């Protein structure tokens, strides 16, 4: 529900659809072995009567953002370190507008995620040399791989506000992080539960991505609460999409009990509906898709029914949360508890409501919610 999710989920296919995500290109098994665990999969006593996708028809409003205590000073300097994956780039696409509204200065540094943690650390060090007031980045890799660089940035007096990852003492805030991913996983499991009792679900994942571990935890939590099972289908971001798709197809053929397949990282959904159709599995397995990207094919998959549903989560909105955190820090405000590692905004997308959503797959007019909080028109 990043990776990208680092890479973002977001729409969890729906992840994040949401969020971003969280992609890491570290060594990873790509043999398709299951890493999940079955929960209540054999029984029929857990779970209520399916409610159907109509239960997700309501649209989610923008988040409520508390008003700032004053007007942040002009001229604040911010560095954005973004990975080169589409959802990473899209996460920060609107930040230029928000920066301009605040009268701040922006420097963007892009790194190649295929270079792994070394590439991220190199980019972060470039950011430190720019001597910004604040720095944000797509934290696609485990914190341990960047901890020394992060501590160096903190020692330099830079306010640190990453997107994806896990909240750390060195951070002012962590956005689209653990709480959002766990929540996206819960929602991802609720979709098949709305269609049948005790569904068997497969999550396509790279096991060493923190965001996907959080999503799996959320799916397991929801399976335990309302019935069903979830298993992991291991792939790797270092594989070409056709290779990952064949891993998924092979897993589904050897595990015919799986009736739903979920992708929560955008690159893991590339070409998957077509691969399922070619394998004759499209009538046997329902697809719940990954991060919805503006201008992409996700909306057509939802409208046509090739994707049963998707989950839109905070993607672009996360960059505005970064600015909001920085603005509160400039004013020496304590960040409200519900804005720290927030669970974030979510929207389940189906064939029935896909056409009514904004093209950005974000909450309608979310920018205005932040501008109002900042006292900006």
Automatic annotation (TrEMBL):
Segment forming the signal sequence: 1-24
Keyword list, A-Z: Signal
Record flagged with keyword 4Fe-4S: no
InterPro entries: Peripla_BP_I
Superkingdom of origin: Bacteria
Keyword Transferase: no
Protein name, per record: Periplasmic binding protein domain-containing protein
């Amino acid at each position: 529900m990043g990776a990208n999710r680092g890479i973002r989920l977001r729409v969890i296919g729906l992840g994040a659809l949401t969020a971003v995500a969280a992609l890491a290109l570290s060594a990873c098994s790509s043999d398709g072995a299951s890493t999940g665990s079955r929960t209540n999969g054999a029984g029929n006593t857990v779970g209520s009567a399916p409610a159907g996708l109509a239960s997700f028809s309501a649209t989610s409003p923008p988040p409520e953002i508390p008003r700032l205590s004053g007007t942040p000073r002009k001229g604040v300097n911010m560095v954005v370190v973004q990975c080169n994956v589409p959802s990473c780039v899209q996460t920060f696409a609107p930040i230029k507008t928000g920066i301009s509204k605040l009268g701040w200065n922006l420097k963007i540094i892009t790194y190649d995620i295929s270079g792994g943690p070394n590439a991220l650390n190199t980019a972060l060090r470039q950011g430190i040399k720019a001597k910004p007031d604040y720095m944000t980045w797509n934290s696609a890799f485990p914190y341990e791989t960047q901890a020394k660089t992060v501590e160096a940035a903190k020692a330099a007096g830079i306010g640190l506000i990453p997107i994806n990852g896990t909240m750390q003492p060195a951070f002012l805030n962590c956005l689209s992080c653990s709480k959002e991913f766990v929540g996206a996983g819960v929602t991802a499991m609720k979709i098949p539960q709305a269609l049948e009792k005790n569904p068997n679900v497969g999550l396509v994942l790279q096991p060493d991505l923190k965001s996907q571990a959080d999503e799996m935890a959320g799916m397991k939590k929801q399976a335990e609460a309302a019935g069903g099972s979830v298993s992991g289908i291991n792939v790797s971001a270092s594989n070409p999409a056709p290779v990952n798709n064949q891993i998924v197809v092979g897993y589904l053929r050897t595990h015919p009990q799986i009736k739903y397949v979920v992708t929560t990282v955008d690159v893991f959904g590339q070409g998957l509906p077509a691969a399922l159709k070619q394998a004759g599995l499209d009538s046997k397995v329902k697809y719940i898709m990954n991060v919805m990207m503006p201008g992409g094919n996700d909306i057509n998959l939802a409208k046509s029914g090739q994707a049963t549903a998707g989950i839109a989560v905070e993607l672009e909105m996360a960059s505005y949360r970064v600015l909001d955190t920085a603005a509160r820090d400039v004013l020496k405000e304590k960040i409200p508890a519900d804005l720290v590692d927030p669970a974030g905004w979510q929207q389940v997308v189906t064939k029935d409501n896909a056409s009514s959503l904004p093209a950005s797959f974000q909450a309608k007019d979310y920018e205005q919610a932040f501008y109002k909080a900042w006292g900006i028109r």
